[in-house]
Amino acid sequence: MDRLLLSASVLTLLILSFFSEVNSASFKLVNKCRYEVWPGVLSGANTAPLSPTGFALKPGKSRTLSVPKAWSGRIWARTLCTEYSPTNFSCVTGDCGSGKIECAGSGAKPPATLAEFTLNGADGLDFYDVSLVDGYNLPMLVVPRGGTRGGCSATGCLVDLNGKCPRALRVAREGGGGRVACRSACEAFGDPQFCCSEAYATPDTCQPSVFSLFFKHACPRAYSYAYDDKTSTYTCASADYIIIFCPLPYTRYNYYYMLLICCDVLFNFSSTKFYMG
Ligand SMILES: *[C@@H]1O[C@H](CO)[C@@H](O)[C@H](O)[C@H]1NC(C)=O
Ligand SMILES: *[C@@H]1O[C@H](CO)[C@@H](O)[C@H](O)[C@H]1NC(C)=O
């Protein structure tokens, strides 16, 4: 009997250490918006799905997800969602088309601001970015905590772009109401020049456009078009991540905002010079 107990506890220990090994990182999703959001999670091909793949997050609330060691995928926030019935759920922005609160393997319908991660990639580094390549629906900030190597900078797009969105890219709520999102030029016009496709499918041939520069000027750290890698991808090793929707105005992570805003201004200056020659 004792022996059975002993082997049971050894087994428990083994299972526990297995899980702590597997769940090596955490994502803390924080809703600082004045409205409810419904985060969506899409895991990349060949990585385990996170659980849950979608949920509601009331203003001021947060939820922490545990993430396996080599996870890759994207996280975004759906807005203006309605659950007509348990199998009829849809959102005005970022909808994943699953008909349910959980996205269950479906991605965000553009436009939506995306946080993208490849954890434990080349050289054991996490690669992360905030992307406006599929358009924009709300401000987002990604802050790594406790990283051991790499730059570990905060990144994101702090500005509310819905009001400032160029007319041709605007998305307004059906039946009146305010502007709710801002499309990418690729999605709005489908032009290969904006989509970096066909004859423009390389970093040299696909250049920033007036539209991608609109996003880049407002949010210098975020991806503004497909080949914006140089100024938009960040690295950190063995970190946990805080993902904040609508980060401003804010109190607790002020230090990061200060840093980000300060660097954004400097960065914008140099990137503007770079793009404008
Ligand atoms: C969901 O419910 C709304 C409101 O009742 C309705 O207009 C819509 O067609 C429904 N969608 C589906 C997929 O059933
Ligand atoms: C970045 O530069 C552009 C053009 O010079 C300017 O319009 C914009 O306000 C700047 N953004 C920030 C965050 O300073």
TrEMBL record:
Pfam family, one: Thaumatin
Domain of life of the organism encoding this protein: Eukaryota
Keyword Disulfide bond: yes
Matching Gene3D superfamilies: Thaumatin
InterPro entries tied to this protein: Osmotin/thaumatin-like_sf (IPR037176), Thaumatin (IPR001938)
Keywords for this protein: Disulfide bond, Signal
Coiled coil: none
Intrachain S-S bonds: C33-C246, C81-C91, C96-C103, C152-C236, C157-C219, C165-C182, C186-C195, C196-C206
Signal sequence extent: 1-24
SUPFAM superfamilies hit by this protein: Osmotin, thaumatin-like protein
PROSITE patterns referenced in this protein's UniProt entry, alphabetically: THAUMATIN_2
Record bears the keyword Nucleus: no
Family to which this protein belongs: Belongs to the thaumatin family.
Protein name: Thaumatin-like protein 1b isoform X1
Gene name, Swiss-Prot/TrEMBL: LOC110753771
